[in-house]
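Input.
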Amino acid sequence: EVLGMSVAWLFTSTNSLPALLLIFLLFRFFDIVKIGPVKYFDQMENGLGIIFDDIFAGLFAGLCYIGISTLAPKYF
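Output.
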């Protein structure tokens, strides 16, 4: 979980509370819903699957954050 959140935080350019809260919520969403490669890695039977599912959830969260912050820059 910490690694996935760290990957997501790499996409932020600020440490404002709204940005960090949005990154956290997006990461939890993708970690719970398990879309695409997140689901594939979650179904692996070894420790690498657990790590990679968090990394990909963080990547998806970061990319969504970039999209949202581009559309609403005054909030983030």
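The mean pLDDT is 89.
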